[in-house]
Structure formats: C-alpha cells, structure tokens
C-alpha cells in the first residue's frame, strides 16, 4: 500500500472506532466528556513515557486510558459534591490535568521526544512511518493495527452489552431497577472512550478525536429513528467524512486531521439542511405546506358560509375573494389554484363554489374549531 | 527578582492580570447560566478567525487578529444556537462539534498559510498554546482596552445581566430584550476569551472562565461579591502564575496560571465557610453517631415493651441485627448506648434498655407521634 492509502485506511478505521462509543455519548448528553478525556490523558501519556521511554509501549496506552477514567471519576466526584454544576466540573478538571501534562513535558523537554502540538493536533501524515514488524516482516503501520484492534474491541463490547448500554442510555433508573448496574455500564463506556482517545491521539490528535466522536453520531441522530440504524449510519458517515477530509487534504496539502474535522462539519451541515424529516429545508417545506393547507380550509369555510345566500354573487366571485379574505391577490390565486387542483372547488361562471368533497373538508375544519 | 525592573515580566504579569479580571467577572455569569464550557468552545472556534484575519491583513497586529478571532467565535456560538433550536441535537453535542470543526478548519487554514513563502506568518501558532513571554506592550494595551470595555458594559447592564442569569422568563415578561442581551453577553465572553488566547492558549482558556467563578461561588451566595471575588481570583492567579513561571525555569506561563487557579478552587471547595467540604465532614461526623444510636435504642425499647413485667429481659444481638440496616456496627452502637447509660448488658450478648433509656425512647416516640 502506498503511504497515502495507508493514511486513508488509518483515518477510516479511527473514524469508525470513535463513532461507536460517540453515539452513546451524544445520546447520553455527555459529549463534552470526550473533549475532557482527550485532553486530560496527556499527563498519563507523559508519565508512562518517562517510565518506559518508549512511545509505542502498551503501558502508555494503559496509563493514559487510566488517566481518562480518572478524569471522569474526578468530574463526577465534583458533581456529586453538589458544590459545582456538571459543565463547570468538566471545565475545571481537564485543563488542570492538561496543564500538569504540559508542565511535565516542558520541564523535561530535553529528554522527551513528545510535544504538545503532536498530542493536540496529531500528524496523520507521519503515522505510516511507524511500522509494525514481526520477525522482520513489515505488517503495515502500527496505528492501523492499534486502531483496528480498538475498533474490533469497541464493536464487540457494543454487541455484547447491547441491551445494557441501550437501557442505561435511554432510562438509567429503569436499568438500575432491573439490576443492570448503570454505573458499571457508564464507567465501561468511559473506559471505551478513553482507550479510543488514547489510541487515536498520536495519529490524529485530540481535537479530531472530539470531532469524530461527536459529529458523525450527531449527523446520524438527524437521520435515524432507532439506535441500531443510528450506530450503523454514524459508522458509515464517519468513514465517508474521513475519506472526504483525506482527499481534500491530499489535494490542498494541508493538515489531514483538520481537514477531516472540517469534513465532519460539512457532512453534518448538509444533513442539518437536507435531512428528509428533520432538515431545515424539510421543516420549511412542511411549514409552507401547512400554511397552504390552512388557507385552503379557510377559503372553503368562506365559500360554504356564503353559498346559497343572496350575497354569494358578490362574496364568491373569484376576482373579489382576496378582498373578503383579506389576503394578497397573488396568494389568493395560488390558494384557489391549489384547492381546484385538489378537486375541492369548481369554477362556475365567475363564481368559485365548493365541491362535495370541499364541503366535507370545510365541515371538518369548522367542527375541528368548535371542538377546540 | 525585581518585579518593577523586569520589563518582560511586568508586561506579562499585567496582561495575565487583565485577562484574569475580565475572564473571572464574565465567567461568573457564564458559570451561573450553566454555560461554563462556552469558553472552551469559543477559544477553539477562534482559530479560523485568526488565520483569516492574518490572510486578509498580512500582519500579526493584535487588533485585527483579535477581531478575526472574536468574529469566528461569535459565528460558532450562533451556529450552536441554530442547531440546538432547529434540530434535536443536544446542546453539549452541538457545542463539542462546533469546537472541533471550527478548530479543524483553523488548522487547515494555518497549515495552508504556513506553506506560503512568507516570513510574517511565523508565530501564529502561539495562539494555540499561548506564549505569554511573546506578549508585547502593544498586545497588553489592546488587551487592557478590550478588557476594560467588557467590564464597563458589564457594569452598565448589571441589572439586565443579573436578570438574564437568574430568571430569563421574568425578564421577558418585563419586556426586556432578553435574546439580544444573551447575544451581547456572548459577545463580551468572546472578547474576554480572545484577550486570553495569546497568554494561556486555546485549551487552557476554558479554565480561566470557569475556575475563578467556581471558587468564588463557594465563598458567597450573592452575585456582586461573587463577580468581584472571581475577578480578584483571576487577577491573583494570572499575576502569580506569570511571576512563578518567570522565576522557575521551564515553567510555561499558561499551565502555571491554570494550576494556581486549580489550587484556589480546591482550597475554596474544602475550606469555604458554610459550604466547604471540611465543614460538611465535621457536621456529618458529629451527626452520624447520634443518628445511628437512636434506631437501635428504639428497637430495643419496642422489644422490651413485649415483656412489661420483666424490665431486665434481655434481647439477643441476632434479633437486633435483623431489625437494623445491613452492615451496621451493632456492637459499637450498643457500647455507645451503654456508655450513655441508656442500655445495659444483662447477659452474654443480651441487652435491655435501662429506665433512663426507656424514658428517652418514650420522649422520642412522643416527638414523632406528636408532630
């Protein structure tokens, strides 16, 4: 594989691995925890690095993941003390831990090949240089293997604990009542988030981890109605965004992580505008449809009211309708056209008269009003 | 060390102090409105604005860059508001997404700028991680003007912002333009965040907004003292951090300021009068033994009532244990009760209430039944 394709493979695998736990974060309204964890793992990485002197040691992963869980424990201890609200607890804990990490790095800058930029921003372009070799055989980039393993573990955990995760997410009290231990599920999920963030940090940086954990699931949330399809969609969207971002970064020769994060935003923006049920366009169309429906009904009620009365010749004349209804002329023409198209009215001479079907609609509208 | 003689230190400390005051005061309102993480989102979202301002002006003059940063942050908050209002995506997801996506876009622009054969672009990254040491006199002047403007607006619209923080609906019913005030408040917060980017950097800016407010909140229940204390904590931490990092080698300014702030938060969480954890533990420690004693005494009294003719009829531990919560230290509680003369050991593992204990139990009963 060429380095470019290897980068693409790492990006896609990382994106899907992050989208899986991310779906639950979005649904549980704890999305900002991903931000906190992805920053707060820094001191764990640094300390483990001091101990092992090896950036690829598995101990690094364990220590950093443990720091991630510690972050969650600290945040929740603050919340439980009821002295600090939830959002502020997050905002206090992770900068403190991150600061410790930065200070540790700069105090020992001379003997650490670790730098804050790399952790925050990541450099996907360098990921293919770290190779996994077994017995002299090159098996591909290390990051691909580590993220692939994390992806499989995440997928396996979600399938195995499907019921528990789902119930603890939608109804924590019921889950507790049925003996599902929502707290265990919660910390399990947080461990998953930590491990994923740690695995991804040196390849893609902590900010992209946040984008990948939140944006694809949030996009899927606009499109899906059920948990299963939502997770599936989130994974597909993550892969698509990663590919788009990668392609753009290759073409423009810019930061790959930044480009993928931007692509995540673009995909979300498209869904936000165009989603079939929930998009802004669908909302606007629904609203204007309702407006026309309502106007048609008002027109029919007006016609029914004056039909067979002496004033009908005046009140139901097509060219006078707009005055009686107090509408603009163009809007009136549009509404009359719609009503005729739906066979609710018919034109006779200069008059507009309701059809039988139109009478029924008008009756229903009036009854609906008198009911409410 | 000569504080007044060292020019760089004076500039850095002044800048950090200004930042601390503005972020502390405005952060108090954000904290009360449960918008503590907006600072975090704003500071990340400012990055593309910085890059675009640089692309347009070709210089790193503080004012255009700050303006660009503020504009980008402001657009990000508008985007968050739009998404929350018009879709079912929850607030925290929208915030996190805006943060990461804007930051990613900023990164793209920054790497694109860095490719240009243009020496002027060097140093733009200092906005990412903060480089207090690179602050110049003109930076601090710009920061002071903006910070002072924020605080003046805050003072002028004090009552309105108070209303916004505590009872928006009431404000609306009074006919105050609450939505516009909300927008204005966000703008002030944007400015405060932008002031701090060069000093503490993107990641740590959120602590400058949240931590002083959190510490001040423990010390008072009133808004005005809280804002003043938060601003004072901000100034103290900013200046202390700046001085510390100049005295100790290899101690970066931003993280040092944040650690000083975190220490202040921990101290006030533990030691704050009335609210503090220390007082809570002391109170609990005083209450707990007494609270454990009463039920056991009442159980023993209830058992004794079944043998009205034998005041010294003993009751076994096993019975008492079934009546008590799981894991209760029954032996210790009985020992305490005996020390107070309320119960007596009448045999091996057998207990009975004393006459004083019975009277005490009847008093308790009266109190419960009587109320």
How would you characterize this protein structure?
The complex is a heterodimer of chains A (about 375) and B (about 375). Chain A has two domains: about 5-275, ABC transporter involved in vitamin B12 uptake, BtuC (Orthogonal Bundle), CATH 1.10.3470; about 280-370, Arc Repressor Mutant, subunit A (Orthogonal Bundle), CATH 1.10.10.10. Helix content of chain A is about 75%, strand content about 5%. Chain A has 16 helices and four strands. The longest helix of chain A has about 40 residues, at about 180-225. With about 375 residues, chain B is mainly α. Chain B has helices spanning about 5-30, 40-55, 60-85, 90-115, 125-130, 135-155, 160-165, 170-175, 180-220, 225-245, 255-270, 275-305, 315-325, 330-340, 355-370, and strands at about 315, 345, 350-355. In chain B, a hairpin with a 2-residue loop joins strand 2 (about 345) and strand 3. The chains are: A mainly alpha (about 375), B mainly alpha (about 375). Chains A and B meet through helix 2, helix 4, helix 5, helix 9 and helix 11 of A and helix 2, helix 4, helix 9 and helix 11 of B.
